[in-house]
Recover the amino acids of this structure.
């Protein structure tokens, strides 16, 4: 089954423009409609999701630098794309795009540097909380 670029971007947790850039760079296989619109096969989206889940060199470096392993007990893990990083002295604000939602976290500037967080790069938000509020 073929899906639109916007649908694929949402499933991948990346912005529409990021996915279009990947398409134009030849990193994503697509077919085009008669009107020139890209369509992405479901199996191509699955390939990209699998690629996102593979440990990266950065994951390997983190394991080696801290002597720990990446698997953690936190189950509320949200995969997204860094939308913005604002450094201000010791602290930093990181905005992570999760589909059509934005999650904002305040972390140390040192953590931003160690994780090499930058706009457009994939990142994982791990939520650990004893209270969750729901509104309607």
């Amino acid at each position: 089954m073929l899906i639109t670029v916007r649908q694929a971007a949402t499933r991948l947790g990346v912005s529409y423009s990021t996915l279009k850039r990947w398409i134009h760079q030849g990193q994503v296989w697509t077919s085009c409609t008669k009107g020139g619109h890209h369509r992405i096969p479901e199996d191509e989206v699955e390939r990209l999701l699998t690629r996102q889940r593979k440990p990266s060199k950065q994951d390997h470096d983190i394991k080696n630098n801290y002597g720990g392993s990446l698997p953690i007990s936190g189950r509320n893990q949200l995969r997204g794309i860094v939308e913005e990083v604002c450094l201000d002295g010791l602290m930093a604000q990181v905005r992570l795009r999760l589909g059509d939602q934005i999650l904002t976290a305040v972390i140390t500037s040192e953590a931003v540097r160690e994780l090499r967080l930058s706009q457009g790069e994939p990142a994982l938000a791990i939520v650990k909380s004893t209270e969750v509020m729901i509104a309607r």
In short: The chain has a mean pLDDT of 82. Residues 14 and 113 are 22 Å apart (CA to CA). The domain at 57-126 is CATH 2.40.50.100 (OB fold (Dihydrolipoamide Acetyltransferase, E2P)). The radius of gyration is 17 Å.
